[in-house]
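Ex. 9. Protein: Amino acid transporter transmembrane domain-containing protein.
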Amino acid sequence: MSTTVHDTRRTSLAHSANDEIANEKGKSATQHHTYDTYGDEDESADIKYRTMVWWKAAALMLAETVSLGILSIPSVFASIGMVAGIILVLALGGVATATGYVIGQFKLRYPHVHNMADAGEIIAGPIGREVLGAAQVIFIVFLCGSHVLTGLIAFDTVTAGASCSVVWAVVTAVVCFVLTIPRTLDGISYLSVASFISILTAVLITMIGVGVAGHTGTVKVTSNLEFYKAFLAVTDIIFAYAGHVAFFTFIAEMKKPEDFPKALYALQISDTTLYLIIGVVVYAYTGEHTVSPALGNTGTILRKVSYGMAFPTIIIAGVINGHVCAKLIFVRIFRRKGPSSRHMNSHTWTGWLTWIGICAAIWILAFVIAEVIPFFNELLGVISAIFASWFTYGISGIFWFHLNPPERRFSSWGQTLKTIFWGFIILVGVFIMIAGLYSSIQSIVDGYRDGAFASPFTCANQAI
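Predicted structure tokens for Amino acid transporter transmembrane domain-containing protein:
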């Protein structure tokens, strides 16, 4: 018996030693193939990026996601009916939570991932890197353009068209550019708190206003719209949850990336609740007369007050998107497969001039496309159909399959159900892209037929 015990102990120790060797090999392999985005940030670093706690990340995510998306929700309810609106807000919000969680898990598996381009390289090599990187830049620049356009609408509304709308677009773009200049997200996170308070106050004023005015329209439980018109409304809800495009960058600047689920749950509980409340309340009172953006549903005075209160969120949410886009390009320039340049972590002329130049280019381009393209909102629908369908939904399914090799996908009933679910999510992304493209293009055709589009660089008052 003594010999057996000793043999058992020796065998156990041998297995433990082998496990330790395997673990060390795994660690060294991981360290060889991965690296941190911002290099070694010791105390001597001039610029420290990984400084955000989870609630600051949540504030950034909330400001970026809720800002403009919430303003379209009441008109969605008016288009597709109360019941369908509630169901879609809850369902798409739930799926957006699941897909956001997978993005967090993908980032933990690959610490060097800073943006969708890095993730694309892991999934599909150099081609995947270029395709997803370009898609992320294009999508975010158009989002910045939407903030420029909303900014000029807000100025026109508050000032009753006191100046040429192009001037207000320039003012919005310049303010956004200046606020984008800080190099880290930690500083901007404080602005995001002001952004959330801003949009919350604006929608509260709107809800109080429509409540005081009383019921002015009929509420529909269901709707019988043409497919493309109904799906255009659905894309507004999809756009309202389209913050995932920036998640990798947010996580990269967190002190503890493993805390990302806390920030994600705070975001999804808050935005879903807000979308339901404003959608139900505003539509219940205004019915078929509901307009988008939602702040236009009150009388003239309250409308001006609402837009005045919404200025911070229009600006700050645009700043967050602009910062994420600039950071993607900046990191691409100064990081080369592992070690980062000293220009990334130090106050150098090269680093700062490059950063400021990138920020300026983004906001100039955002201003131009918002002003030149007469059907900008419809084109934004096309861009959202192509990119938001994947960044918010479909690509997380691809990430999940990458994180779960074939031998694990059907290892149990639970894994089988997950495999089916994430396969379905990929198909949802494909469907949203195709249906969204068809609906948005049809809307552009209708707009030209009806003469609904303004001319480029128009000075006309664009107040709602």
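Check your answer against this statement. Residues 1-33 have pLDDT under 50 and may be disordered.
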